[in-house]
Amino acid sequence: MEFFKELQQIFPKDRVTTNETILEHHSVDESHHTASRPDVVVFPINREEVSEIMKIANKYVAPVIPFGLGSSLEGHVIPYHSGISVDFSLMNQVIEVHEKDLLVKVQPGVTRTQLNKELKKYGLFFPVDPGADATIGGMAATNASGTTSVRYGTMKDQVRDLEVVTADGTILHTGNLAAKSSSGYNLNSLFVGSEGTLGLFTEITLKVYGIPECTMAARAVFPSTEDAVNAVVSVLQAGIPIARSELVDARSIEQVNQYNGTSYKIAPTIFLEFHGNEAGLNQDVGFTKELFSDHDCQEFIFETDSKAVHQLWEARHNLAYAFIHGTPGKKMMTTDVVVPISELAGAIHDARLKLNELGIDGALLGHVGDGNYHAILMIDKNNPSEVEIADHFNKHIVEYALACGGTCTGEHGVGIGKKKYQKLEHGEAFDLMLLIKKTMDPKCLLNPDKIFDKY
């Protein structure tokens, strides 16, 4: 590997390695997709070193795959063509906080919880919460969202500027610090969600928000999924500014109880959170309770104590791990689609019928406020029949979503798992996206085989 020898001339021995354990760590993410090891792992500490990596890769036509924490769910960081895995864990500095502008500049290896710990000193917080303590670079690369997107939006709504290293080693910026611009193409939106296929992020400037004066969380139980979804739709139509709105089905609640030792009623449940001042929140919660009662809400319990609020959301965030630890010997397959809000109840009902028809043990949950829902399946990867059935289910819910004007993924991203649906979803626009990719990365160095087939 000539590129390895050249990397060794630039990086100290502890930051460029072919150690077997480290290669193995960079061969997987948290998805069910097949592992594949890189040739070498490099740990840069600044933009100049990232640029040098790309120049060497360009010289030797070596694939380059960015790596954050490996928490991705569609095989994004798996190097199927070997090459160089660029681990950003040492680029983990909060560079500067512009508290008066409500902005923060970070390196890509900063994690979500690390960022919020620093912002808390200024009375600020960063709202995007995908559940996992992912890196900001990885979240930007997949246009992550999560439980708070109903109020604050997704990553693309937070990114004000990106510093990007392109395929030939050029360092460029996609935006600025201004609140809006009518100048030129919106390159922020081009790069956010590009999954490392157009460039490597070395700095990210984000919008942040004031910590709300008061936070209230609630748990509402319904007789059916349809009742639960329609109840949330009525709240959105009424203009109540909920901060989080999560549906957890009965099978999920059963697993939560088993894992966390809770005794929640086993029925479709909505987890809610409200941000604001105490007087306003009391009105919002009261109005929400009235609207929910119109949809046969069986229980409505809300919390204001910060510890109780944390425990409530911890149950939701730990759901995937509840299934993993509760089903030894099996691998989690999780997928997500998005449909228009008006189609969500039907989509989830259809997904449950399909799970029952196929005889799969699975859970359905989602961000009801934005039409994004997830399926969690536990499968034996060594059983071809189980893998085939799970793939069939995934295909079914994707095609349902696309048929009603939705998308094959709302936050997990495309990676390797959703690549086969891109042409079906985007039509002629897919060819334009591929043209952009080939123009910016003519040698297909950047995360090859993700979103597009390697060319």
UniProtKB/TrEMBL annotation:
Enzyme class, first EC level, given as a word: oxidoreductase
Keyword flag Nucleotidyltransferase: no
Stored InterPro entries: FAD-bd_oxidored_4_C, FAD-bd_PCMH, FAD-bd_PCMH-like_sf, FAD-bd_PCMH_sub2, FAD-linked_Oxase-like_C, Oxid_FAD_bind_N, Vanillyl_alc_oxidase_C-sub2
PROSITE patterns cross-referenced by the UniProt entry: FAD_PCMH
Cofactor(s) needed: FAD
Annotated ranges, domain FAD-binding PCMH-type: 34-211
Keyword Oxidoreductase: yes
GO biological process: lactate catabolic process
GO molecular function: D-lactate dehydrogenase (cytochrome) activity; D-lactate dehydrogenase (NAD+) activity; FAD binding
Protein keywords: FAD, Flavoprotein, Oxidoreductase, Transit peptide
Domain of life: Bacteria
EC identifiers of the protein: 1.1.2.4
Database matches in PANTHER family: D-LACTATE DEHYDROGENASE, D-LACTATE DEHYDROGENASE, MITOCHONDRIAL-RELATED
Family, similarity comment: Belongs to the FAD-binding oxidoreductase/transferase type 4 family.
Name of the protein this chain belongs to: D-lactate dehydrogenase (cytochrome)
Species whose genome carries this gene: Schinkia azotoformans LMG 9581
